[in-house]
Amino acid sequence: MLSQIPIDLKKVDKKNINKEILRLGMIAELDAVSLYEQLAAYTTSKKIKKVLLDIAREEKTHIAEFQTLLHEIDKEQVEENKKGKKEVNNLS
């Protein structure tokens, strides 16, 4: 689980700092989604499961918020996402 920043932000070029901050936010949210979904799978309480899965869904919204902001400042990421989507679509 992500409890510390895995990179030294002081070493990141200032022009890329916001991109890295957004990516770190996405990593943290993805980690949280994974944790909550795993905990939901383990609990025997329907109420706890429902809450955990609801929180996991909220974390997915946060991921989308970070990604939206990243797309505003990193056009290369936008293009690579399009390429990735096209590659996946070509598999089916």
Question: Could you characterize what this model shows?
Answer:
It contains three helices and no strands. By secondary structure, it is mainly alpha-helical. It has one domain (17-91). The longest helix is centred in the middle third of the chain and has 28 residues, at 46-73. The model has no long low-confidence stretch (mean pLDDT 94). It has helices at 17-42, 46-73, 75-91. The chain is globular and about 45 Å long. 77% of the residues lie in helices and 0% in strands.
DSSP helical segment count: 3
SS strand fraction: under 5%
Helix-strand sequence: HHH
The secondary-structure class comes to mainly alpha
Shape: globular
Radius of gyration: 16 Å
State the helicity in percent bands. Answer: over 70%
Q: Give the termini separation.
A: 34 Å
Give the rounded overall mean pLDDT.
94
Largest sheet: none
User: Spans with pLDDT under 50 lasting ≥5 residues?
Assistant: none
Count of DSSP E strands? 0
| Number of structural units classed as domains | 1
